[in-house]
């Protein structure tokens, strides 16, 4: 399907294209090149969706929804902001909409669970990877970040994990730069200093979106686009 089963060398050359050039060529009919944008930003979209939703599977669903929506509205990308910011904003909106729907559903469901039960960390069942010190530190960092309130989690994920600038984060979340700075400061203060200092070197690898999952998202998005647009979609 598309580049996924096509010429790997050609994909390598195309991967050097700027985002805006890829968008231009996709709109011109080279729709298979949309895969480049997905692979380029899978990690970021996963992290921001996970920060908002805290659920791994839901984050992946949001990624696919965001890519489908971005493809369908690609002609509306005006270039006033960076494409990565435009795409991230779509993912943020998709994740927040899903979070709001979930909250409304939970409000209607008179669950007897106490609020603390919703803050349970994932199981620490040991496996070979978790036995390694680096993997253990990574898991501790992820758990600490997921314990933060949503407003702080999202800013922390984009600024510290994805290393976006204050301006880029503010634009993606539709906040003022001052608001981003305040939220980031509070997010960092909520993490225990000793945990954050020990796990800080693992920040780039936390909430990683590895190759098999990346392939799955690309495949699922193209299948959804084909079902929506029919065989006219060249992928």
Mean pLDDT figure: 82
CATH class: Mainly Alpha
Assigned CATH architecture: Orthogonal Bundle
Quick one: how many beta strands?
0
Count of all domains? 1
> Which overall shape is indicated by the principal axes computed on the Cα atoms?
globular
Query: Nearest-angstrom radius of gyration?
Result: 19 Å
Determine the fraction of residues in helical runs and give it as a percent range.
55-70%
Q: What percent of residues are in strands?
A: under 5%
Major sheet description:
none
Give a written overview of the molecule:
The protein has 235 residues and is mostly helical. The protein has a single domain, classed as RNA polymerase sigma factor, region 2, helix turn helix motif (Rna Polymerase Sigma Factor, Chain: A), CATH 1.10.1740.10. It is built from 12 helices and no strands. Helix 3 crosses helix 4, helix 3 packs across helix 12 and helix 7 packs across helix 11. The N terminus is likely disordered.
Please name the defining characteristics of this protein:
67% helix; 235 residues; 12 helices; mainly alpha; Rna Polymerase Sigma Factor, Chain: A; globular
